Amino acid sequence: MSQNPPNLRPDLAPRARLTETPRPAGRDAQPTIGMVSLGCPKALVDSERILTRLRAEGYAISPDYQGADAVIVNTCGFLDSAKAESLDAIGEALAENGRVIVTGCLGAEPEYITGAHPKVLAVTGPHQYEQVLDAVHRAVPPDPDPFIDLLPAAGVKLTPRHFSYLKISEGCNHACKFCIIPDMRGRLASRPAHAVLREAEKLVASGVRELLVISQDTSAYGVDIKHAEERGHRAHITDLARDLGSLGAWVRLHYVYPYPHVRNLIPLMAEGLVLPYLDIPFQHAHPDTLRRMARPAAAAKTLDEIARWRSDCPEITLRSTFIVGYPGETEAEFQTLLDWLDEAQLDRVGCFQYENVKGARSNALPDHVPAELKQERWERFMEKAQAISAAKLEAKIGQTLPVIIDEIDHEGATCRTQADAPEIDGNLFIDEGFEGLTVGQIVNVTVDDASDYDLWGTLLEK
């Protein structure tokens, strides 16, 4: 069992897991594609959609380079460090396999990729599914066998069977100066509510116990289509959350901007329809810093809103991400952020050190913060966040909580409470009496001990 590290990047999806068994080798062997999926959960969903389409056309999915006729690398272009990671992954795939197709956010800059790796077979941008399929067809022609190649009802999944990401929209209408996501993924484009619900119903029917709702701006869902109602379902986040909550699975909301109508979600959490968990990208607290970011500068009002949420739903868990060392950030502005964090007492916190990203307007801002000062502020921020986390988890000792089991090995069961999203939050460990438990099961546990980020507990007797 592994414990949750304190510096886990909050923009990463769980590692992709391939569990399919391809058709036996030999005369009837399938054409086989490998997949390397980098970046955020939205990119992971894109990878699942690509593999589902390929699987339907008769391709096998390989978990390693050697067993693949070609490899797709789904890249991330969120930060310069993520771009470097993507280039490294492309280089590794070329070295190990030699036949590589590149897609994803970094694919919006094809010259950047081909300049470093001119031997890639093709480069496509984010959510360009047809172009990816065309590139695969050229590199490895399909050879479907209708008697053998059956597609699972839920499609090909890269997450464990018991949880799944549910993407409700693409793109973003914000113009944050540090972000180029709208340039890569376009403006907000919401899916019809009935289509989202139909996908969720299929996932739950296939055994998914937790739906993780994702988008670039979940609160804005449906704005672009004027909250259209179709087939009895309205494209508004409150209505969608209520509909999803009727399916019987845990429903977890990610990337929720703190618009006023978010308060309408809190009663659904208090009722138990959706998990009492909000992932809100606050980014900073000082109004001047937020203005330079081109984000709403109302940190004081946000504290009032947080107090209201907690009053209406005392068990709510709040997660957020922040940027330290943004251009022009003074010591006084940073101290305001620390003071705000003290007052907000957020349960789960991730933090980035600011990085220039090619094409971002923040690159041109004056007074960039030196690297060593960014590191020092990051350490001070995380020290405070860690202390808050430790105190909040210690207060849970003695409580009985429902947990979902993610993994079981000879040491015990690794679980998550309703306050913990996969990979980015903490874990709860059961060290004794875990025999007979199964992955995906939801059980009640009494908390016995706590660390800075994780809990330990004892399984209640049934």
From TrEMBL:
Positions with a binding annotation for [4Fe-4S] cluster 1: 40, 76, 105
Keywords, in A-Z order: 4Fe-4S, Cytoplasm, Iron, Iron-sulfur, Metal-binding, Ribonucleoprotein, Ribosomal protein, S-adenosyl-L-methionine, Transferase
Example GO molecular function: aspartic acid methylthiotransferase activity
Positions contributing to [4Fe-4S] cluster 2 binding: 172, 176, 179
EC numbers on record: 2.8.4.4
Family to which this protein belongs: Belongs to the methylthiotransferase family. RimO subfamily.
Protein name according to UniProt: Ribosomal protein uS12 methylthiotransferase RimO
Species whose genome carries this gene: Pararhodobacter oceanensis
Gene designation: rimO
